[in-house]
Amino acid sequence: MKHNTHIYLAIKGIEFLYEGLSNLHYAKSKKKAASTTISKRRREGKILQRMLMNYRDVISEASWAPDDILNDKSQYHTFKLFTERDFPHSSSFAKEIHKNSYYRASGGGGLPYKVDHLARVISDMDKLRRYNDRCSMKQIMYQYLMISHYVVDAHVPMHCDLRDDPPSANDTKKPRNGKYYSDSLHGHIEQLWEDAVNPIAIKEGIIEAKRKDDDCPPNELSKQIRFNVTNNAHCDEIKPYLVSNDGLMNYMIDLCIQTKERALLLFPINDPTNWNQQLFPEMTREIFAQIISNLISVWIWMWGE
Ligand SMILES: [Zn+2]
Questions:
Q1: Ligand 1 centroid vs 249 CA: distance in angstroms?
Q2: C-alpha distances out from residue 168 to 79, 179, 216, 305, Å
Q3: Is the dihedral of CA 131, 132, 133, 139 positive or negative?
Q4: Among 140, 178, 222, 256, which one has the highest count of C-beta atoms within 10 angstroms of its own C-beta?
Q5: How far is the CA of 38 from the centre of ligand 1 (A)?
């Protein structure tokens, strides 16, 4: 995702923190959480929402820092999977196998591991703050906003799809028994999202107009990325999950698998560069709603007891 999309989504995660938690579900059973759990988490969520809003001025930097300052894109922003469907008889290229049929090739990024580890570090920072004032709330909230970057990236179909990375001529670590898609598609699709987000984010005061082009009216896709917390139907689309203390890594791996499945729909196996533009608007809505939901899921995993 591009910069303004990251800012926009972090803000939406904060905006929906309280209302979104009324639709909290258990990650394991997929059932709606008990009403006492929901009330407790909403109370906690309201405090976190207020806290994050206090540090609103760092959202732009923190949500973008992994791409800009840390620059750990190839290591931790992706989880490049392939399957027997897109690369038949290629399991020997698998470095890891997930759920029996999702392979990760060498150099395919460790996004779920990063989120799990970083989330643990952040909750430890909060424990240290309470014990000996070692970390400030300002530092901790910065990290909450920074982890949003990795969570958002896990929902981008190209980030969980090996077909986005065609092998160079002498690369022997990637399967060839299948089709990769054009390397310009990744940037193109992220730009479509950015162009849809910009007019809405400017109108809502989330980002400031800086360029001549920033003043353009919402486009066709803009309605798919628009989420308003005072709109009941929009609130119903947000569905965060309560993940167990030891369940975050698997939750993130499952999410990347789901993203890979979306990639298989968006970039058809037989002709992936001829991507599915009919499906794209509907899929955009689904992806953005899931991102807002999962920002809340990961934040409350760190924030709650
Ligand atoms: Zn990134």
A1: 19
A2: 19, 14, 39, 47
A3: negative
A4: 256
A5: 32
Q: What are phi and psi of 250, to 5 degrees?
A: -65, -35
Q: From CA 91, how far away is CA 89, in angstroms rounded?
A: 6
Cα of 45 vs centre of ligand 1, distance in Å, is 26
Provide the CB-side half-sphere exposure for 185 (13 A, CA). 22
CA 127 – ligand 1 centroid, Å: 28
Burial state string for 162-194 with b = 16 or more CB within 10 A and e = fewer than 16: bbbbeeeeeeeebbeebbbbeeebbeebbebbb
Helix pair 185-203, 280-303: axis angle to 10 deg: 70
The CATH classification number of 3-303 equals 1.10.575
Whether the Cβ atoms of residue 259 and residue 160 lie closer than 8 Å to each other: yes
Expressed in angstroms and rounded, the spacing between residue 281 Cα and the centre of ligand 1 is 22
Give the burial class of 253: count Cβ atoms within 10 A of its Cβ; 0-12 exposed, 13-18 middle, 19 or more buried. buried
Per-residue pLDDT of the chain (305 residues; tens, 9 = 90+): 999 999 999 999 999 999 999 999 999 999 999 999 999 999 999 999 999 999 999 998 999 889 888 888 888 899 999 999 999 999 999 999 999 999 998 888 999 999 999 999 999 998 888 888 888 999 999 999 999 999 999 999 999 999 999 999 999 999 999 999 998 999 999 999 999 999 999 999 999 888 777 778 899 999 999 999 999 999 999 999 999 999 999 999 999 999 999 999 999 999 999 999 999 999 999 999 999 999 999 999 999 76
**Side-chain-facing half-sphere of 231: CA atoms under 13 Å:** 7
- Hey, is 161 helix, strand or coil? strand
Instruction: Note whether 16 and 37 are within 8 A (CB).
Output: no
